Amino acid sequence: MIRLTAYVTLFLLAQFTYGQMPKKPLRVGIVGLVHSHVHGILNKAFKQPGQTDIEIVGIAEPNRELAERFAKQHGYSMSLIFSTIDEMLDKTKPEAVTDFGRIVDHKKTVEACAPRGIHVMVEKPLATSFADAKQMAALAKKHNIQLLTNYETTWYGSNHKAYALVNTEKSVGDLRKIVVHDGHQGPKEIGVNKEFLDWLTDPVTNGAGALFDFGCYGANLSTWLMHNQRPLSVLAVTQQIKPDIYPKVDDEGTIILTYPKTQTIIQASWNWPFARKDMEVYGQTGYVFTVDGTRMRIRLKDEKSEHAAEATLADSPATDPFSYLARLLHGETKPDELTSLENNVIVMEILDAARQSAKTGKAVKL
Above 90 in pLDDT, residue 198? Predict the structure, then answer.
């Protein structure tokens, strides 16, 4: 036993000497529990003890009943719960915060965190308006913090393999058309909880309905594929196909982005027969379709028919957003463009223009 202990001590000393000591988990605070995507980080932190690269040090959530319900589900202590973000930040001193509150409150989170030097990751989209997005970006730059936006599709290996085929390998020729489909049968139809449904279907707290909830994915991916080029114009059409269920917001939205030699069509809907997040990318000489997170369909020049392809998790920047956040802040990976502030400020310019276009029936020139 003595020899074993001595060996372990020498091993750890060698690791420390050569700078290879395992890094401590990233200290993370959660702001809000009303966005159902919060279950991802709660599962990671509390269902995988000792095997995760993050540690939840505090949760700011004024709804005590909701916090208690999730505590029973995930097994965290109610001592982690604080009624305000300022109290949570001051008492727990997190290195980063993940925001799972209402989209309209993202700005308040950045206003609280940025002056304290605390990094922020928000759920998509970045904000409810272009004006708020610009103010948030200014705060992040002033205080030198990371301000990231998390999309499920950022972690799809298929999207990154498609990007490589289009932009790195130039396999499909110059881009001509991008078509992105996102959505599901509707938030109420798929059974989201009441706390999520209440703000998701409110134009003030969410910015719009399906137009913002799922239109943001296409805006994010198009901006990425186009190397952060802003479109020349934005044209949008929205509908209320189910006004009895969603009386305040659209449940169907289509956005057309016009670039000098490319067009993007974004189809965002709470009326799909099944949930989907897929994309079609057409070039002069070929096309790439992403079917889901791994499956793809490709046809290139001189091929008589399309062929199936598979992407892997290794094609994406990380296995999940929270591992990526920890690795990024520990200096172990490079910034990813899809989560970046530069991309997502453009996304908000597009969504803001789309909302205006749908209201006026006219294209908005940027």
Answer: yes
Mapped onto helix, strand or coil, the DSSP state of residue 229 is coil
The residue length of the chain stands at 366
pLDDT tens, 274-331? 999 999 999 999 999 999 999 999 999 999 999 999 999 889 999 899 999 999 999 9
Cα gap 52→16, rounded to integer Å: 21
Q: Does domain 2-150 have CATH number 3.40.50.720?
A: yes
Question: What is the residue extent of each domain of the chain?
Answer: 2-150, 153-317+340-365
pLDDT-above-90 percentage for the chain: 91
* pLDDT digit string, tens, across residues 37-83: 999 999 999 987 666 799 999 999 999 999 999 999 999 999 999 99
pTM over 0.70: yes
- For every residue of 290-334, DSSP letters joined together read E-SSSEEEEE-TT-SS-EEEE--GGGSS-SSHHHHHHHHHTTSSP
The CATH number of the structural domain formed by 153-317+340-365 is: 3.30.360.10
Tokens 């994309």 belong to 279
> HSE on the CB side for 57, CA within 13 Å?
19
Read off the tokens for 173.
Answer: 């020729």
Token pair in block for residue 218: 């296409």
β-strand 233-239 against 175-183: which pairing, if any?
unpaired
The mean of the pLDDT values for the chain is 94
Question: Helix and strand tally (H, E) in the chain?
Answer: 13, 15
Closest by CA position to 121, among listed 272, 353, 334, 340: 340
Query: In this structure, what are the phi and psi dihedrals at residue 62, rounded to the nearest 5 degrees?
Result: -70, -20
Q: Answer yes or no: are the C-beta atoms of 35 and 123 closer than 8 Å.
A: yes
Query: Which pLDDT belongs to residue 294?
Result: 97
Q: What's the pLDDT at 284?
A: 97
Query: What are the E-state strand segments in the chain?
Result: 26-31, 54-60, 81-82, 96-99, 119-123, 147-150, 175-183, 233-239, 252-258, 263-269, 276-283, 287-290, 295-299, 307-310, 364-365
